[in-house]
Amino acid sequence: MTAGILAAPVLQAASEEVNVAAGWIALIIVLAIGAFVVFLYFSMNKQLRRIKVPKRDEADGLAAESPTQATGESAS
Questions:
Q1: How far apart, in whole angstroms, are the C-alpha atoms of residue 41 and residue 48?
Q2: How many domains would you assign to the chain?
């Protein structure tokens, strides 16, 4: 019985029609997040293009050497 008494105001409030709109601030936030994602995408592509990947033949030759020889460090 107490659950019905406690739920009555909630059910009345839910049944009333409420007109709520997102507003301009939410639109600005969504557009800013979208612009930031596009900026990150182009920045990531720029950084990935800068990576120098050795050709397959060079990579096989480096893999055959020891790690100290490949990096140019001395073994001492």
A1: 11
A2: 1
Distance CA 63, CA 76 (A): 21
Could you give the angle at the alpha carbon of 55 between the alpha carbons of 49 and 57, nearest 5°?
A: 170
φ and ψ of 12, to 5 deg: -65, -40
Name the pTM for this structure. Answer: 0.47
Length of the chain: 76
Chain segment 13-50, per-residue pLDDT in tens: 556 778 888 899 999 999 999 999 999 999 999 999 99
Q: State which H helix or E strand residue 21 sits in.
A: none
